[in-house]
Task: structure prediction
Amino acid sequence: MKPFVRGDLDGFFALALDNLINLLLISSFCLGMLGFDPAFFFGRILPGTSVALIIGNVFYARQALKLAKAEGRTDVCALPYGLNIFTTLAFSVLVMLPAQQAALAQGMSKAEADLIAWQAGIVACVGSGLIELFGGMIANTLRKYIPRAALLATPGMVGLLMISSDFFFKVMGHPAIGFTTLGLIVAVYYGRMKLKGGIPASAVIVVVGTILAWVLYSRGENPLVPVGSPSELGLGLYLPLPVIGDLIAGAPYFSSYLNVILPMGLLNLVGSLQCLESAEAAGDKYPGRPSLMMNGVGTLGAAFFGSPYPTTLYFGHPGWKAIGSRAGYSTLNAVFFTVLLITGGITYIAHWVPIEAGMAILVWIGSTIFIQAFSAVESKYYPAVAIGMLPVVGGFSAIVVRHALAGAGVEFTPELLQQIADSRNFAISGMFSTDIGYIFASVIWAAATVAIIDRKFRLAAIWMLGAAVFSALGLLHAYSVQPFDVIGSVEPAWPWAASYAATAVILWLMPYIATPLKEGEENV
Result:
């Protein structure tokens, strides 16, 4: 297999957009919410991020070439890899912001508080990386005992809702750009066509989308607003440097924020397992141990060079493979973002290329992941996939409600949640409890359903007992209502723990209280 093929350009644009979105989010947190000095942001955090991106992307590109050579194939696609949006949110809001505010409350200066917030962030990043690293050592064992339907349910619904639907709403919100580019990508990929001259469809989509966005913006018909002037946002040369001293100084914060680090690290591990299973279902069987351990190495690389933001494997391998991506798109991503992040050139991309320009690509990729969740399992396990998708619906719904309430300037309170539940007949507390640890819930419910379909009721009971333990540890369903959000609270969620335990008892006793239906017999 060649190091670069034409389809790698399509894949590069899609992966670059994914990472660009996360980088813009990081920028909004660091420069906006936390108010870090731009020189610090461009000089420390972004160069550290470049280290993580080049470590992982180069490794996964080489891994794909190695697999292709070993199996004599030319259609192997590298695992997509980049910044983790979940830990970006969690470490910014639940680690760095509280650390900063606590320091300010103690009378420290803003500069001192910012330093403490950053040190707490990079220590949390180390913790997440260690969980991924050591979890990778048992990756093959975990995949052996977790059924495929349980590992594909989460990425399937994440693809449909959090990738496709989110960007489809943007398509509908900006139809002049969205309809044109979505129509083109559907025609090319679902219609199995190729543009004349060998031009990558994704490149055309991004260029056309960008031109349309700026034409409409110049006429006052499009609300896309450039992010300042590129020349004012820190263009220069910022080489990554190790920050060992700051990690040592921030070490005491590890125990203070373990309640955030532990669940986020475990979520990353389980999510990466699901990515590997999705890749195998698409025909690319990568070894679990090195794949997940390198994910951890990338996160540790970020922390040791000053970035508090972990990296992860991305849901979407089937989509990238379907558009012809192989190994080169991962290499291109590493080179592209390394250059942008050590020069501050990311500001030019953020200014001139609106996210909406490439949103159609991500709509297509998310839809492809959803299709795979069903096509890669036996039809008898479709119910398990469907059940496993429901917790993700809860997570997506929680995001929508958060946006609506926060956008309206409404303060979150337990009384407000109860008022919504009473007046709208909407189980909002159930939605938020589902949101906390929904990846765990998805795997557990789907795996238990697979066991039930196979009439292995005691195995299903064991999965429910596992959910009871996770709930008792606060990794599932435990939430806390704060003025700014409803967040996870690593405290025992006893009602859910007890209910899972009761369900486990019922499943354990099922062979004694029921008999299998005979062939052709209906359960009425």
Notes: The chain is about 70% helix and 5% strand. The first strand starts at residue 81 and ends at 83.
